[in-house]
## 1
Amino acid sequence: MRIGFIGLGNMGAPMAANLAAAGHEVAGFDIAAPMPAGVAKAASIAEAAAGAEVVLTMLPDGAILRRVAAEAIPAMARGAALCDCSTVDIDSARAVAEEARAAGLGALDAPVSGGIGGAAAGTLTFMVGGTAEAFARVAPLFDVMGQKAVHCGASGAGQAAKICNNMILGATMIATCEAFALADKLGLERQKMFDVVSTSSGASWSMNSYCPAPGVGPTSPADNGYRPGFAAELMLKDLRLSQQAAEGADADTPMGALAARIYADFVEAEDGRGKDFSAMLPRLAARHRR
Ligand code: NAD
């Protein structure tokens, strides 16, 4: 397939490299990042998009996506599909899909879970919003870049699934870390906490698969000095998107709101930026009840 790939940063570069390695013809464009192996450099967004059957985007936020889409859409051939894999606000996802459809294009929002490791290994999970027809067109590319693609519903449904998942993750990580910090102060060994909770009703992905305590459970960023992994500032981004969506939809999300506030303190007022989001454990362990 001929593919245009716009946004070749930490996630986009390995995703595009995997598509090229699988035999697709990939033209890439990024304002700063170098081209990964096998990807031909385009001189502009329009050049990357022209003649492509599918244009993929992997960009920092919704405002940038809107600007990129405004340049890509007019360059694309009718019948082609625009598939955004970034994590962005639902309004931007829907607005871009609407513009694409008005130009006779297929449109998908397809944010991912799995991080940089999953992008490199081709084991991402895609959560996808858009028509069944557009989903079927891009599905072979999801198979190359990921291990699973779930068609969640109409445009915006992929972003909805992503921010709901990460709202659970943010709140659960904080709850897991504060329980470890309490256990410390009660004189309970962290290994014993893990042994009990990981097979009890407090179990979660945060505890069982990504344990925030160094030396306990499977290897995780905690065992690597809390280097990301999934950075605290990216968790804050996703929690803020969840709160923006909750406000727009008139949904009461008190745990998500509190998680967003706690990660905002950690990233913006303390030393959390650049650390894995599980560094919430040393943060809480060092604090005292006020
Ligand atoms: P990144 O900052 O490494 O990459 C973004 C790239 O977009 C950069 O190379 C930048 O130069 C490029 N870019 C910005 N404006 C552009 C423009 N106008 N035209 C062309 N290129 C432009 O970010 P990332 O870590 O690759 O994340 C990308 C998206 O994936 C984000 O929305 C993020 O929330 C999401 N995401 C990231 C992770 C992760 O672990 N890094 C996990 C899941 C989802």
## 2
Amino acid sequence: MPKPHVLQIGSYPDWDQTPLDQAFHMHRYFEAADKLAFLADVGASVQAIATRGDLGATAQMINACPNLKMISVYGVGYDGVDMALCRARGIQVTNTPDVLNGDCADLGVAMMLCLARGMIGAEAWGRDGTWAAKGSYPLQRRVWGQKVGILGMGRIGQDVANRLSGFGMQIAYSARGVKDVPYSYIPDPVALAEWSDFLMVTVIANADTRHVVNGDVLRALGPHGMLINISRAANIDEAALLDALEQRKIAGAALDVFEGEPKLNPRFLALNNVLLQPHHASGTYETRQAMGKLMRDNLTAHFAGAPLLTPVE
Ligand code: 8YV
């Protein structure tokens, strides 16, 4: 039987690439020097797209593939996929939810601890001889027992809250509605920020949540407040955040996602009150293997005419 044709937007680890190549005819968009010519060449043959959460699938890619029926995303976030176009064309979209919750929560908590306790600076203090020359490291901020506001009490937000309960933190959250969780519901993000010592953003990115963390939220978080973002850059007004960090209107930010990533706004690099991470919240062997399997299983189910495992809506 001929192999189904799949447009592959970005690279995958070998443990995914090998089985993908065995089962499908993979057209590697990311390796093409001339992307437009490549799409014009292979577009008509493409039946499905395999992409990543950080890459998505644009209208240009989708429009180049008139026979496209399905998009399989390696990642929980599908904000990079042109969903309006997929709905209009009846293209089904799958993602990889749940398998990455624990890792994303782990990294969010680690980022919060690392920022609050100044661990990057502390590492340098020990290594470069400052400890011996100047003595003890400057005092830092306590985490346990403090107030954490979680913006978005979805699957990842709940895993973060479970972990932080163990730290004796007071926990409140904003979401579209009250959830069945034992934490205080503060629907307005400004009010949540005002209440919080730490504001952890785990909310899904869509048109409704764009720049949900704006200047007002940052002002409410205040000069002792710290922001942690493990969701999407679009959830934060990055220009307002940079102003707030530069002017010390908030105490600090720990960020795993950035506008225009993997390039960072150079203003971030000049700051000493930020912890910058290269979008790797799901980046463990265990989770990436589970994500890859789910992404491949969705493709397999589609071509077998079986129900998709994790359709997005
Ligand atoms: C990316 C992510 O998929 O799950 C998401 O939404 O953003 C990540 O897990 C990751 O960068 C894979 O390349």
